[in-house]
Amino acid sequence: MKCTLFAVLTAFLIILSPGCSPESSLTHVDGLGSIDFPNSGNEDAQEPFYRGVLLLHSFEFTPAGEAFQEAQQADPTFALAYWGEAMSYNFPLWQQKDVNAGLAALARMDSVGALGATDRENGYLEAVRALYGEGSKEDQDLAYMNQMQALSESNPYDDEARAFYSLSVLGSTDGNRDFDVYERAASIAKPLFERNPNHPGAAHYLIHSYDDPEHAHLGLEAANAYSDIAPGAAHAQHMTTHIFLAQGNWRRVIDNNIRAMNVSDEQGALRGRPPGVCGHYSSWRHYGHLQLGEMDEAEAMMDACHERVMQDHTRSEWFYFVGMRAHHILSREMFDTTERWMVDFSSLPEGESPLFVAFTNALAHLKSGRVEEANEWAPWITVGDFPPAQMVVSMFEGYRDVVAGNVEQGLATLRQAAAQEASLPLEFGPPRIPKPTHELLAEALVETGNVAEAMDVYSVAESRTPGRWVLGKAADLNQE
User: Fold this and answer.
1) Can you name the CATH fold of 1-19+26-239?
2) Looking at 188-305, which runs of residues are DSSP E strands?
């Protein structure tokens, strides 16, 4: 698929126009969006290839890989079909990469002698080889980003190079938030979104760049657009709520995650998977119900998730169950429900899950004045090798001291935990620590008569986790 001379001349008149031709050359795939990606594949390979690229942009990695395999079957020497499959094994913002599967896809490409027909296509192949090349994952990610930057700069009319370059910048931090880096990614994606507002990657990567409470307003336009761009991609429906949650827009958090769950369940049924009652989308929806006080819906979701983990379940389902349970008990102050969704504690996988179950139960008991019951969970509240662990330990010990009457010591420990969290980048999504540090500190200050300081701390809590139900107490306190 080569640009006509007219299209090339026109491109020079349209600064950074999509691909190498005017917008009318965009290829649309129902439910997934529109892009222009000229390539050397044969006619039969075009539909699965475009479908695969669009699915990649919405992080639907498994069906994307399958689409690229369809393209390989249609055109066995189509190099970019193998490039796409290798790309489907890299999860740039999830701190994961299936190196063996990616190398296998590239090895099959080499075995059939597939080569890019143009220097531009070979640029994509060089980049993906760097992604699975020598060195650590960090080394590979940086090498890939540099290759994508070079490809984008040498092909200024290739919006796919620009889109994947933006994503590579986001991925260069291996999932750790660095707003300077994220702003760079946004600056690459934004012109693409303006030129092609139906490009799923442009909208997606802008949302990722801005999905914290301080910057969420900058991603609102992309969030409003993305679910309509790719209604057939479950992750696209969910991804919009990264912005809505950061703004405390709970109704849209609920509605769009319902859409995500429905799309995911429809696709999962085709693969023999049960409904996702204990997963990423359901946990965000559940959190939205909690904040709006829709307790019947929230409890029904907890019941379904609890039933799943009491039977056959994955490690991921354990993780989301523990998080949902913690938020349910602590976000709505349901301190008398610690036994309702309890599990065999010894069956929990290592990592955050035992800590957060113990912390949830202990804090609920302390809030209810049951100090002895709280102390029974103390042996499980220990520092682990993941960032929130020290803060959680400090929160438990500090609040326990406050309850025991060691007020100054307890408040000092809670202030230390809050300072530690404040030093970290703003989060996206439901708080990883189910009772944010500033929130607990503010409550302890109110309980000990330090109302003026509490109001200042509540203000910080609101800036970090806008619109949470429990923060409404600060507004009530301010009116007294």
Assistant:
1) 1.25.40
2) none
